[in-house]
Amino acid sequence: MSRVSKPYEIVERALELSTTDGLVVIADEHSSANLRWAGNALTTNGVTRGRTLTVIATVDGAEGTASGVVSRSAVTADDLEPLVRAAEAAARGAGPAEDAQPLVSGVPSSPDFTDAPAETGSEVFADFAPALGDAFARARSGGRELYGFANHELTSTYLGTSTGLRLRHDQPTGTLELNAKSPDRTRSAWAGRSTRDFKGVDPAAMDAELAQRLRWAERRIDLPAGRYETLLPPTAVADLLIYQLWSSTARDAVEGRTVFSQPGGGTRLGETLAPFPLTLRSDPHAPGLESAPFVIAHSSGDSASVFDNGLPLAPTDWIRDGKLERLTTTRHSAALTGLPVAPAIDNLVLDGGGERSLEEMVAATTGRALLLTCLWYIREVDPATLLLTGLTRDGVYLVEDGQVVGEVNNFRFNESPVDLLSRASEAGRTEKTLPREWGDWFTRAAMPALRIPDFNMSSVSQGV
Q1: Which of 83, 237, 321, 418 maximizes the CB count within 10 A of its CB?
Q2: What is the pTM of this model?
Q3: What are the b/e assignments for 4-35, b being 16+ CB within 10 Å?
């Protein structure tokens, strides 16, 4: 066998080896670069490379089509035939796949399918690293310590199928988390950023924001649990609405298992969820949030099907002008429910029509309100209402008549994001944000800050 090593050659050779009715091959070429720091000094940095190959074999039978999926890392040419045979054996040993559909065909090939994979490296931090060093110096002189990490990943995905698809997508993903602490560690503040390339990321501005929050925390005010007017920053809104998106599968709604189920049967599609024209949408071509324009499914589940690999993705409004417009479907679940095909897309944007920044929303506050930094440890309590619980973290601040007057204790909250949308009294300006809780899985989000008149802080938490 001739030696093959380029990703597209690996895909083509795996397809040539197939002896089943259908085959999907996904080659993911990964590279990453990272920086970590603690106490105003870099501690580690590194660069990694890797390859993962996923082979999905399908076998037609009298009772339906079965599928077998096998994924392995560090695959070489010598590993290909055993991998393909393992996927085929898994398919032959499986029963008919519930989500079976004809493999996607007729999608034009990517012109760069045979090109070398894109790669990241330490050069991605060429401008960021010196600026971070300057931020360390300012923090040191200001009596605070900076901790955190910067990570950049680039994945080139090559998708080939026995029906002729040859698709390629390069996905850059950058995240930055910066935490400032007082020297005695009694005060802490956090900020995060999502970026495609670390261009325009300003650690000095982030440090200045954190320094202000540490100053706010010099005054401590204890508050009891209760319902408070609350300003949710974009990162917190993203964490809540990402969970809502993950919970919006059409099949579960039709079967009466989710907050989007209509009592007595059916779904809440067409129902008004928000009092003003909020639009929650995904778009693979959203500027700065670009994601794969076709389905990449390494396994089947509630919101994805391996049979849909290569299916083109289009801009989708999940909520339009306050009304529930779409629930996520695969081709299989769309056929089951009679709803349009609407696969999940790897970004999320909430538009509320507002123009104010979070700072301007704080300044416009009359009376008392809480200003959150972020949420974490979010867990589902009740799928029927999508009631979530979680904790505040790294700073909850008291606002009185447009001024932040101090830091208050942390809380546990109990809220449903669907219910929050119905009660929001203001949406600010939509801006790119990094979800704090789900940032390891979902980074491409743009959200406004939301003002909630009666956010439920269900108990006091000792978390930091």
Answers
A1: 237
A2: 0.96
A3: beebbbbbbbbbebbebbbbbbbbbbbbbbbb
